[in-house]
Amino acid sequence: MDGHPTSIEAAPTTAPATRQLAVHFTGSGTEYFRIWAVNVLLVLLTLGLYLPLAKARRLRYVHANTWVDGEALAFHGDPWRMFRGFLMLAVLAVAYLGAGEFAPAASAAVLLMLYAVWPALWRASMQYRLANTSWRGLRMGFEGSLHDAYLCFLPVYVPLTMSALLDGAMASHGPSTDPALNTGLWGLVSGLALSLTAPWTLTLAKRYQHGGYRIADQRLRIRLQARSVYFIGFKSAMLGFFASLVVMAAGFALGSLLGLALNHGAGLAGSSTYVSLMMVLLFGLFYGGVLTPYAATRLQNLTWSNTRSDGLRFESSLDGWALVHLTVRNWLLILLTAGLYRPSATMATLRLRLEAIGISVETEPDHWLAPKGVAHADAAGEAAGDFFGMDLGL
């Protein structure tokens, strides 16, 4: 030995291996049509009371046909436990409609009551839905707090509450002596305030959702800036504005030609009805078939591509034009088949959106641990999920 310390070289560190989990959706329009037809029939025969059971059947089918890494999801929810939330919302809806018809002053109170309970119902919906969803025997969950659920809605609740409380008073105390003009001006101000705060609420809601999702011990987190959501809203608004000019010109031209053809050249005066009809159809087709899919594509890619946990990462590459093409095609086929194509349209849209999501894992799911005591039996808020389009978090 020469008396000098021996140097030991540190072993090179390697990044954990990443593996892709393939996502496939095998739902069939033909299969789902039978479920959909029976659900519609029983909902009509029971005057809507079958809705929770219909929803459970739909969720079981969608989950059983959503495959991740060769394993299907499973839904374990009890539809009878979903009646409480359904009946609560039904009672509030009937009370609001009845108050608006017979006691307009009371409708604001019912609406404020709905505002007060909605965030809690929304949170309960996610807790129930995720707690009753599993993959490879691993239960999912939602761990967002009730406090944060209410904070999500605060930006839009301010203009909504002011509108509910002051709508009647502003008609007689506005800047004009004409109550109708005051009501219109107040509606314009309220709508503008709601438009400006909606992207903020949407940002908070997506942070809350994706930051509360969990599968086994993998708690997700998301990095989402409000300016990114506002930018999507701004681009959508600009697209809608310029496209509206084109739609109005096209509606006027097509409606006039249709009127001239059907009225045997009686002149443009008799074409106003056809012009209005064409504008309604074209605006509906554009906003439902182009603008809404565009915004949905941008939002899905933004949120899921910024969501990850310690052991897995998500990436969304949904093609906006593919979704627009599919949506327009679905709308046309639904119209041509008097609504009978709707089940196939639903399955095709789900397939496109789900298979656009990529999942990569850095730790094998076999090593994930299932925490104890995470089940949520309260299904009171499950009915609220449909309002927010919460199916599978899309």
TrEMBL record:
Keywords: Membrane, Transmembrane, Transmembrane helix
TM region(s), chain numbering: 33-53, 82-99, 105-124, 145-165, 185-205, 229-254, 274-297
Pfam assignment, any one: DUF898
Protein name per its UniProtKB record: DUF898 domain-containing protein
Source organism of the structure: Pelomonas caseinilytica
